[in-house]
Design a protein that fits this description.
By secondary structure, this protein is mainly α. It contains five helices and no strands. The two termini are about 30 Å apart.
Length: about 130
């Protein structure tokens, strides 16, 4: 195992649920960027592969939602994740670069929102200093 892989594994082993959520959304955004590159290069197989991973992440995030804590937030996230899943499926079929850009814009906002929410929750947690 390389030093980088070992470091990443250690990071994940010690990550909080919130950290993992942010990492997952960031990976989906990264895969969408790679899919957009494949779309521009007319690499349909690469497009499918990267979209598949991004979709899988949003499916898992949607399944992990707990509506008992904040029903309205969970419903909004459920709808957003469902939209992402549907649009990613559509972009594979249509190969529409404008749709890919729209997906990336929305998921970029999702990623930034989650990063800020986790940061704020750490800042407001009693006994835990902000990072």
């Amino acid at each position: 195992m390389s030093a980088i892989a070992s470091y990443r594994r250690t990071q994940l082993e010690h990550a909080t649920n919130e950290d993992i959520l942010v990492l997952l959304v960031a990976e989906a955004v990264r895969r969408e960027a790679m899919a957009a590159e494949c779309l521009a290069a007319d690499d349909h197989e690469g497009l499918i592969a990267h979209v598949h991973v991004a979709r899988a992440i949003f499916i898992e995030l949607r399944l992990a939602l707990d509506p008992t804590a904040a029903p309205n937030v969970a419903q909004s996230l459920h709808q957003t994740y469902a939209w992402c899943i549907h649009q990613l499926t559509t972009v594979v079929r249509t190969r529409d670069p404008e749709l890919m850009s729209e997906i990336q814009r929305v998921t970029g906002v999702v990623e930034e929102t989650w990063r800020k929410a986790v940061e704020l929750s750490r800042f407001s947690s009693p006994g835990e200093p902000p990072k």
